[in-house]
């Protein structure tokens, strides 16, 4: 299988949205009090903002003429609190592979490309959030060397 990575273009919007929607549906099923089922998961304005700013990037994976994966990245600054060391880091908003192409190394290729993108921009780290129910994602990120930095806890008041 020949996988090609490239920067997304405006015409990729529908395919990118479809791939990310698969993950959104999994989240909505696992946590219906937190995630909605949507047709358009990625807002068009948000998608366009990634193509117009040098500190943002959408990397897509193609297999033949079909889009099968996506990574959405942006550079961020740590909050300016005296108690925190100032730093610039890359944030991985989305990393998703179409269900028809999972477990074929595409996610790892997208992750490796994300690391390279972050390093090229001087990021001190690559960070992301993963929901506790999402054991497959946690296993994937552990397999590429990511570690847990912190956990967010909650108490349900309803």
UniProtKB/TrEMBL annotation:
InterPro entries: Acyl_CoA_acyltransferase, Bact_Acetyltransf, GNAT_dom. Gene3D superfamilies: 3.40.630.30. SUPFAM superfamilies: Acyl-CoA N-acyltransferases (Nat) (SSF55729). It comes from Paenibacillus roseopurpureus. Keywords: Acyltransferase, Transferase. The keyword Transferase applies. The keyword Transferase applies. This is GNAT family N-acetyltransferase. GO terms for molecular function: acyltransferase activity, transferring groups other than amino-acyl groups. Residues 18-158 form the N-acetyltransferase domain. CDD domains: NAT_SF.
